[in-house]
């Protein structure tokens, strides 16, 4: 466009403007008054556009500049362009900020930005949940006033963030957080917290598991070692004691074998991938097979077993896993009920699926133990159960096999009166669901 705003050009423009007034004034012999009028008109013209400019800038709501003439057209245009450019920049920045916020909200971790002294600048939603922050009212407050655990305060004040720290969440007592602080931008810190509750639980479970297995194997091994030491000199051992030693060693070996095979079974069930449940299982037949297998055990105990089975009721599932479940429950009922007991096994359609139940009139289980029965190695009476060869793994296998079938173990038991263990397989696993029978 080639706008010329040198002093020379402005002066030239003024001379050209004044020239006709000067000539006319000279001809009419009013040279100075004519020039004064010309200058006054010019001034009034400028004042007018200046006034319009300030009206537009301060009072008008529109971005479009008012109409102007001459030099003022360029001034208005210039301001308009600068405003537009700033508006674009602001929009771009707002979009960027919005995207950054969205990205930080999508993070699976809590994030807090703070000053070097711990003053909170910004936090994402997860941080507000994990640390119980009230946003924006907590903005500007020091982190050590919000997370007051002495371990965290010491960690923050020491300013050595080469390692993370694991803390309980101030807002949720059962939640454990892995907190890491990183220097960020100029004199700022970025705090990232990850929920490690599940991870820590698994870690503890793994440690407990190893400790339990070692402990469980240690007892039979110690017994065997003791006998083996005695057997170093078999001649001096009375025959009766020798028989007892061999008998005990045999039962301890059986116990260890039993435990190892149960552990293998547990890990097999735990690691099996979900089934499409295309295989039909006739549970009544399965119960009959299990009962044949435990005949010998029951012959010792002489329990009366009453059956109430729906022979046509089949389910989709894993035959092997359902057999394990039923076998464990039947085995326990026979094992823990004193001789000559009454057992009742039922397999029936219910409103929400198909239910297996086994009821006995054995010793029952005290309420305080009931929640923990499916934990690995959990036994109600360790001494008595060691004598019965129990490992405390049976019901934990049952739990996993039932998880696999989207079901869970239910127990109704009154100490001294007996127990009823049951599980309900959901309707979607029942083959050709008939109308409700209950
Ligand atoms: P175990 O190998 O010891 O039988 P389980 O996991 O099968 O382990 O059972 C856990 C505990 O639950 C047993 O030690 C026993 O004390 C108790 N229990 C299981 N079934 C019964 C039952 N029918 N009657 C009484 N107690 C039972």
UniProtKB/TrEMBL annotation:
<dbReference type="InterPro" id="IPR035965">
    <property type="entry name" value="PAS-like_dom_sf"/>
</dbReference>
<feature type="domain" description="Histidine kinase">
    <location>
        <begin position="212"/>
        <end position="429"/>
    </location>
</feature>
<keyword id="KW-0597">Phosphoprotein</keyword>
<dbReference type="GO" id="GO:0016036">
    <property type="term" value="P:cellular response to phosphate starvation"/>
</dbReference>
<keyword id="KW-0808">Transferase</keyword>
<dbReference type="InterPro" id="IPR036097">
    <property type="entry name" value="HisK_dim/P_sf"/>
</dbReference>
<keyword id="KW-0472">Membrane</keyword>
<dbReference type="GO" id="GO:0005886">
    <property type="term" value="C:plasma membrane"/>
</dbReference>
<dbReference type="InterPro" id="IPR014310">
    <property type="entry name" value="Sig_transdc_His_kinase_PhoR"/>
</dbReference>
<keyword id="KW-0812">Transmembrane</keyword>
<dbReference type="GO" id="GO:0006817">
    <property type="term" value="P:phosphate ion transport"/>
</dbReference>
<keyword id="KW-1133">Transmembrane helix</keyword>
<dbReference type="Pfam" id="PF11808">
    <property type="entry name" value="PhoR"/>
</dbReference>
<dbReference type="InterPro" id="IPR005467">
    <property type="entry name" value="His_kinase_dom"/>
</dbReference>
<feature type="transmembrane region" description="Helical">
    <location>
        <begin position="7"/>
        <end position="24"/>
    </location>
</feature>
<keyword id="KW-0547">Nucleotide-binding</keyword>
<dbReference type="GO" id="GO:0005524">
    <property type="term" value="F:ATP binding"/>
</dbReference>
<comment type="function">
    <text>Member of the two-component regulatory system PhoR/PhoB involved in the phosphate regulon genes expression. PhoR may function as a membrane-associated protein kinase that phosphorylates PhoB in response to environmental signals.</text>
</comment>
<keyword id="KW-0067">ATP-binding</keyword>
<dbReference type="GO" id="GO:0004721">
    <property type="term" value="F:phosphoprotein phosphatase activity"/>
</dbReference>
<dbReference type="InterPro" id="IPR003594">
    <property type="entry name" value="HATPase_dom"/>
</dbReference>
<dbReference type="InterPro" id="IPR036890">
    <property type="entry name" value="HATPase_C_sf"/>
</dbReference>
<dbReference type="Pfam" id="PF00512">
    <property type="entry name" value="HisKA"/>
</dbReference>
<keyword id="KW-0418">Kinase</keyword>
<keyword id="KW-0902">Two-component regulatory system</keyword>
<protein>
    <recommendedName>
        <fullName>Phosphate regulon sensor protein PhoR</fullName>
        <ecNumber>2.7.13.3</ecNumber>
    </recommendedName>
</protein>
<dbReference type="Pfam" id="PF02518">
    <property type="entry name" value="HATPase_c"/>
</dbReference>
<dbReference type="InterPro" id="IPR050351">
    <property type="entry name" value="BphY/WalK/GraS-like"/>
</dbReference>
<dbReference type="GO" id="GO:0000155">
    <property type="term" value="F:phosphorelay sensor kinase activity"/>
</dbReference>
<dbReference type="InterPro" id="IPR004358">
    <property type="entry name" value="Sig_transdc_His_kin-like_C"/>
</dbReference>
<keyword id="KW-0592">Phosphate transport</keyword>
<keyword id="KW-0813">Transport</keyword>
<dbReference type="InterPro" id="IPR003661">
    <property type="entry name" value="HisK_dim/P_dom"/>
</dbReference>
<keyword id="KW-1003">Cell membrane</keyword>
<dbReference type="InterPro" id="IPR021766">
    <property type="entry name" value="PhoR_N"/>
</dbReference>
């Amino acid at each position: 466009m080639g706008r010329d705003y040198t002093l020379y050009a402005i002066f030239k423009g003024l001379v050209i403007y004044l020239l006709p007034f000067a000539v006319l004034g000279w001809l009419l012999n009013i040279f100075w008054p004519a020039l004064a009028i010309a200058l006054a008109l010019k001034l009034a013209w400028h004042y007018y556009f200046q006034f319009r400019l300030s009206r537009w800038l301060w009072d008008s709501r529109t971005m479009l500049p008012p109409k102007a003439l001459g030099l003022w057209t360029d001034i208005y245009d210039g301001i308009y362009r600068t405003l537009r450019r700033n508006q674009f920049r602001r929009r771009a920045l707002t979009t960027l900020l919005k995207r950054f916020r969205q990205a930080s909200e999508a993070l699976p971790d809590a994030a807090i930005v703070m000053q070097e002294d711990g003053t909170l600048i910004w936090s994402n939603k997860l941080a507000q949940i994990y640390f119980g922050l009230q946003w924006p009212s907590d903005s500007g407050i020091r982190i050590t006033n919000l997370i007051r655990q002495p371990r965290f305060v010491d960690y923050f004040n020491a300013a050595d963030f080469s390692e993370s720290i694991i803390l309980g969440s101030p807002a949720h007592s059962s939640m454990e957080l892995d907190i890491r602080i990183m220097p960020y931008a100029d004199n700022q810190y970025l705090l990232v917290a990850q929920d490690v509750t599940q991870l820590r639980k698994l870690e503890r479970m793994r440690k407990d598991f190893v400790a339990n297995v070692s402990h469980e194997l240690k007892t039979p091994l110690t017994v065997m070692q003791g006998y083996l030491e005695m057997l170093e000199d078999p001649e001096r051992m009375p025959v009766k004691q020798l028989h007892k030693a061999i008998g005990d060693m045999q039962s301890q070996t059986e116990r260890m074998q039993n435990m190892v095979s149960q552990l293998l079974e547990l890990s097999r069930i735990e690691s099996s991938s979900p089934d499409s449940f295309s295989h039909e299982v006739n549970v009544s037949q399965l119960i009959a097979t299990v009962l044949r297998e435990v005949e010998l055990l029951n012959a010792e105990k002489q329990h009366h077993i009453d059956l109430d089975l729906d022979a046509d009721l089949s389910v989709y599932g894993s035959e092997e896993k359902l057999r394990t479940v039923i076998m464990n429950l039947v085995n326990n009922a026979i094992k823990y009920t004193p001789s000559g007991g009454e057992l009742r096994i039922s397999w029936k359609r219910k409103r929400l699926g198909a239910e297996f139940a086994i009821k006995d009139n054995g010793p029952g289980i005290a309420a305080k133990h009931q929640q923990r029965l499916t934990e690995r190695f959990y036994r109600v009476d360790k001494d008595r159960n060691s004598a019965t060869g129990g490992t405390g793994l049976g019901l934990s296998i049952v739990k996993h096999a039932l998880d696999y079938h989207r079901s869970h173990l239910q127990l109704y038991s009154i100490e001294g009166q007996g127990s009823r263990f049951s599980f309900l397989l959901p309707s979607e696993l029942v083959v050709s669901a008939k109308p409700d029978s209950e």
